[in-house]
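Re: that backbone. Tokens:
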């Protein structure tokens, strides 16, 4: 047990936690805050759900992730440089959003949200790579601790800080455009934290030496600009994916990717409609901010750390299995809340269990994906796998509003369906038990 706690005392985890905050905060801007704003402007459930399509950007960030691995910014280093630049883009977009009117500028609100999503997804690539790079491959327990604190940080940004907009929204004289100015100010503080973080000390040239030699040979002996560019592009765009599939084997790699894609799809459908659900059954903005954000924040932090300890002590497979079963159970609680109505006590119980399942599942998944990555291509390979998890939470879940409408507004049935969505991933998980054990013991 002392070894388990020792893993959480590493000073590097402070930066991991803070970067987790910076990663989760933009989801608030284009997720629950935007949904609440549009709901107050009387947009339909289907329209609000379709706005979630901008999150699809997170599902495709692996397309430009190789550039984050290979192009070094002019300041702050390979990882912090990219993080800082994207944070300023997000700040600028918040300032733009504060000037828009939802009744006449709906297109520009969607466009601004898209820009925030692109910058945030790019920031996430660098943040995930930072976490993998700053901790060596041999420090498996520390990686699990880092995964739990990254999750706790993400929920601090999304949930803890996420309560602020909803508490402000119910105050006299406040409107959603003004709230985006507050969001911009908070993002400035995240930028200051980026300046104070320490860049990972990694010899990237040494890690890439073998791959560089391979692609230089393929390009031939000519020193022409075309051949040099070809070798650079092959190394940057092809090698990260080739290395992953060769190391895992094509069949196993596909199975791993399928599991990652399916694992949180039910939670994604639920999450996209949760704010709309809370408002429709009668909860106020203040109650949503207090219970869904503040309470969920503390629950998530506690269970993120506990989830990390379970992974360290009992392994990632058990962590994923427990999380998957609990996710289905928490979705069924939402179904019961749809029947009971706006009962604060039941809301608290549901939020606590939902926070537990979200945190536990995320910690186990982050640790699992991190261990699968080769540090030479940490940004690209993590982005490839994480984007599949996000794909179910973004592109597919954007149809969640249509599903509710198709069910005639039957929220209880909707939540039962989301609970059943976890079953296919658990079937795949059982077949991956040996592979997960192999990855844990080899790192």
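Recovered sequence:
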């Amino acid at each position: 047990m002392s070894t388990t706690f020792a893993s959480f005392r590493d000073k590097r985890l402070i930066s991991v936690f803070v970067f987790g905050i910076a990663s989760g905060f933009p989801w608030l801007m284009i997720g629950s805050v935007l949904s609440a704003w549009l709901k107050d402007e009387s947009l339909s459930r289907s329209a609000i759900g379709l706005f979630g399509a901008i999150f699809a950007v997170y599902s495709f960030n692996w397309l430009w992730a190789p550039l984050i691995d290979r192009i070094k910014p002019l300041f702050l280093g390979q990882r912090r440089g990219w993080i800082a630049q994207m944070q300023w883009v997000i700040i600028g977009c918040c300032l733009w959003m504060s000037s828009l009117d939802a009744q006449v500028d709906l297109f520009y609100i969607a466009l601004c949200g898209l820009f925030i999503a692109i910058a945030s997804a790019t920031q996430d690539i660098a943040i995930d790579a930072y976490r993998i790079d700053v901790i060596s491959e041999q420090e498996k327990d520390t990686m699990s601790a880092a995964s739990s604190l990254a999750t706790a940080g993400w929920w601090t940004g999304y949930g803890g800080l996420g309560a602020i907009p909803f508490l402000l929204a119910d105050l006299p004289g406040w409107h959603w455009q003004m709230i985006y100015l507050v969001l911009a100010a908070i993002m400035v503080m995240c930028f200051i934290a980026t300046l104070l973080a320490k860049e990972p000390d990694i010899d990237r040239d040494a890690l890439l030496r073998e791959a560089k030699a391979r692609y230089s040979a393929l390009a031939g002996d000519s020193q022409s600009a075309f051949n040099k560019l070809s070798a650079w592009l092959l190394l940057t765009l092809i090698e990260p994916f080739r290395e992953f599939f060769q190391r895992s084997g094509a069949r196993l790699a596909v199975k791993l990717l399928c599991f990652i894609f399916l694992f949180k799809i039910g939670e994604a459908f639920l999450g996209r409609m949760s704010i709309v659900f809370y408002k429709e059954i009668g909860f106020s903005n203040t109650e949503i901010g207090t219970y869904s954000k503040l309470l969920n924040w503390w629950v998530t932090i506690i269970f993120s750390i506990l989830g990390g300890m379970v992974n360290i002590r009992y392994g990632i497979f058990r962590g994923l299995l427990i999380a998957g079963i609990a996710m289905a159970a928490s979705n069924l609680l939402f179904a019961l809340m749809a029947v009971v109505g706006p009962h604060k006590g039941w809301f608290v119980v549901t939020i606590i269990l939902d926070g537990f399942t979200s945190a536990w599942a995320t910690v186990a998944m982050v640790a699992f994906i991190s261990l699968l990555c080769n540090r030479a291509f940490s940004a690209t390979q993590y982005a490839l796998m994480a984007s599949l998890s996000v794909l179910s939470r973004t592109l597919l879940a954007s149809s969640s509003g249509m599903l509710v409408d198709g069910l005639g507004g039957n929220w209880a049935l909707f939540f039962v369906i989301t609970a059943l969505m976890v079953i296919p991933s658990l079937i795949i998980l059982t077949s991956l038990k040996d592979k997960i054990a192999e990855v844990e013991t080899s790192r």
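The first helix runs from residue 2 to 6. The chain has a mean pLDDT of 76.
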